[in-house]
């Protein structure tokens, strides 16, 4: 009697668990549509035009490969991202899954207007990670960008991300801004946001095919060398090439980078910096703000093009240290004043530094911080410690000039 | 006190017939002992004829005529053999069942039983279940005397104490409690004695019965609280730590008690290894324990509920491999797990000559064919194979039984509740392990210490 009662109780418990538990949430990975990237532009029928990059997962297996493309782009127009997702379900017989989404590309025009209504869903939806990378694009290029493969990386969004990370890690040329960071900068004063600006060079219909991987000369390229600059919440312009790099360094986000200076007419000394660290400080000198930047880093000599410039002695190192300090200081000053005068927007986080060090003062100038920033004096101090010269001391150009034998 | 063995010599034969029945291996031989009639009784299945003739018949021929009584005969001719004088048929029967021969002589009120033995036994062999590279190549045998000799040959000390108990319903099957006097905790010793004594009169013929009776928790036995061991060196090591060893006649293993959870992760081999290697192996075994227990469950939980925690490249791979398969992941996993368990069981039961062929062929055929036919995905094969390998890494075979079974419980709960279910299951398992006791010692403690 007792055992049968227990058995029944156990079975009832199991039944209750099975009925009340999350069995309904069960997904089968074979029936998922893995969405890896979303693009947003202005729409015609709906408010926005959404581009999605979906994965053909069978292409990643050895046994089920069909030799079709690894990813595909589909798009639709809707008033909100959630509406667009609902439309996907009507078109593709798979359950869209967003937890592996890594990239949201946003049209420049939307950013220029400061339209962020599509982002609330990304911020709110439990599947979407807030560590995904945001990039700015030109609206009419978006379809091409999501369809153009990079050599060896056959999913376009992977290519962009890998390229962006590589660029950041090796030369600090750009910074993959996460959704979380972008939102933080957007919602706090004292540090205006920036986004990587993705452009495509020579967009070509031919490049939007897996056969393009077979071509040797690939002219269609993704260009990541610009940074989109925001003022308040609106995109106002871009910084290109070395200025973009300087902006990343000044934000304190670049760890490794490369600086050159002239050692002779059209000849360069190139120094690789590691462990770059930037401290910012804001003080007020008679009601005029002074922006102070202290940068220090360890350096390695990458190349010396001038003969008899460097002999591997300690005074040579000292000379190089002084020269590179001067050159970097000049570069940073230029970039800072450009941003000050052209965009009048503090994208470097000086306001944040003031808030941390002098909150009272920051409170007074909070609402007009960007004007304060643009009229501020700038002081840059750079201390680079070049200690290494690779596996060679004297450059071989010296030995060409002073032959021993 | 009680009835004499017989009233009248002539009716003795019918008394014997009544007592021992008509079993064919029972032998009764009439003899003449110094002009008196006598009987020799024994079981031919327990007493070897060579031993019988050399130990009893030869002395009988030489000395029987010269002695007046049975006692004198024993003292003169059979001085080196274990004996008993018995006056009850019940105890005579018991002694006969312990390889003895009984002598009855007309006019003597008591029967003489002497231990002859001499049936054939298996020779000492290498340990099969727990082989080791460096340790002694001797395993226990079915014979209790041999096993005790194996222990005393190493522990040559007077503090090695051996207590014999006649358990089981007819008080014949012998169990032996071995311990080191002065090392063992007196409380533990008393409890061990009590538990073995409580078995007297119950049906205990094998080690499994004995273990069932000796356990603390009689109802549930998800994890073993007593250790079976067939190695001499392991038993000696445990004896020296102050634990008790129980041997039972007819089983080539010893029971070590008490044991805690951690003891199942050290093998006898460990004593011969350098310290660093030992630590590494110990960590590896804990790792394999969690893999063998949880991996299939985690797989199901992650695949079906927490898909987002898989790294993206792996997620795409799995999604690709799982596409267009006929069964849901749980059914698929259970199918492959079932096939693996059948293969495992089949290869044990297989005659040894074909045994090796079966595992290889079975694994190849079932795995490869099932994947190619598109019935199961290769991920599941990898998961099951890795889990199976991990469950072989335990030094103690009966511990891996528990892990094998609990694994299915974890698959079940993960298929309903996902990763959350795995955590719930782990909490329940941990609570269960903490509540277990082995002879009063907490099961989940690191060193064996009584609280």
From TrEMBL, chain A:
Residues 227-390 form the Spore germination GerAC-like C-terminal domain. It is found in: Membrane. Belongs to the GerABKC lipoprotein family. Keywords: Germination, Lipoprotein, Membrane, Palmitate, Signal. InterPro entries: GerAC_N (IPR057336), Spore_GerAC-like (IPR008844), Spore_GerAC-like_C (IPR046953), Spore_GerAC_C_sf (IPR038501). It comes from Paenibacillus glycanilyticus. It comes from the Bacteria. Its main location: membrane. It is a lipid-anchor. Residues 1-24 form the signal peptide. Residues 25-200 form the Spore germination protein N-terminal domain. Gene3D superfamilies: Nutrient germinant receptor protein C, domain 3 (3.30.300.210). The keyword Manganese does not apply. This is Ger(X)C family spore germination protein.
TrEMBL record, chain B:
Keywords: Membrane, Transmembrane, Transmembrane helix. PANTHER family: LEUCINE ZIPPER PROTEIN 4, SPORE GERMINATION PROTEIN. Pfam families: GerA. InterPro entries: Spore_Ger, UPF0353/GerABKA_families. Belongs to the GerABKA family. It comes from the Bacteria. This is Spore germination protein. Signal peptide: none annotated.
